[in-house]
């Protein structure tokens, strides 16, 4: 299993980019999975549903199985967030796990950056950023020390880069 991350400030287009990369990687015959880290509270269940009621009753985990998919919900109940390694250990075997978030993790990452959003790059302050995908070039003063710069519109080149630089786990 290999791992590669996509990082960037909120609103930069990380998920939109991943929506383009996943099918392009899968078209090359690879099995792709994804871990998305959110700093918000998430809930894939709904109040009133049996699984919600049973989870709220105190279950540590609830596995919900339907006709098309299953989901395992694990309640932290005040425990710290698990590490990325812990989560990766729970993934089914695949060729590549893409990770959205976990900005502090020291694994290779592509930063999505759009000057128009008005926020600075995460690079060079965050570990693992090996390339910046953007719709504009970085300022000339940053270009000399910046990691690889990729065109956000060129999905094929980004897929080549991701596959060449993904870390073996």
TrEMBL record:
Gene Ontology molecular function terms on file: GTP binding
Domain Molybdopterin-guanine dinucleotide biosynthesis protein B (MobB) residues, every copy: 3-135
InterPro entries for this protein: MGD_biosynthesis_adapter, MobB_dom, P-loop_NTPase
Gene Ontology biological process terms in this record: Mo-molybdopterin cofactor biosynthetic process
Pfam family membership, one: MobB
Superkingdom to which the source organism belongs: Bacteria
Cited CDD domains: MobB
Stored PANTHER family: MOLYBDOPTERIN-GUANINE DINUCLEOTIDE BIOSYNTHESIS ADAPTER PROTEIN, MOLYBDOPTERIN-GUANINE DINUCLEOTIDE BIOSYNTHESIS ADAPTER PROTEIN-RELATED
Name of the protein: Molybdopterin-guanine dinucleotide biosynthesis protein B
Organism ancestry: Bacteria, Pseudomonadati, Pseudomonadota, Betaproteobacteria, Burkholderiales
């Amino acid at each position: 299993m290999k791992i590669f991350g996509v990082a960037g400030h909120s609103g930069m287009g990380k998920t939109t980019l991943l929506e383009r990369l996943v099918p392009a990687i899968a078209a090359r015959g690879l099995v792709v999975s994804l871990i998305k880290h959110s700093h918000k509270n998430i809930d894939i269940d709904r109040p009133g549903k049996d699984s919600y009621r049973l989870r709220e009753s105190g279950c540590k985990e609830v596995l919900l199985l339907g006709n098309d998919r299953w989901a395992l919900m694990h309640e932290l109940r005040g425990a710290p967030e698990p590490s990325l390694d812990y989560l990766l250990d729970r993934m089914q075997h695949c060729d590549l796990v893409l990770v959205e978030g976990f900005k502090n993790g020291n694994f290779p990452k592509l930063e999505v950056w759009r000057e128009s959003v008005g926020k600075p790059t995460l690079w060079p302050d965050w570990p693992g950023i090996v390339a910046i995908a953007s719709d504009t070039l970085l300022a000339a003063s940053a270009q000399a020390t910046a990691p690889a710069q990729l065109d956000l519109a060129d999905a094929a080149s980004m897929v080549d880069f991701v596959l060449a630089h993904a870390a073996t786990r």
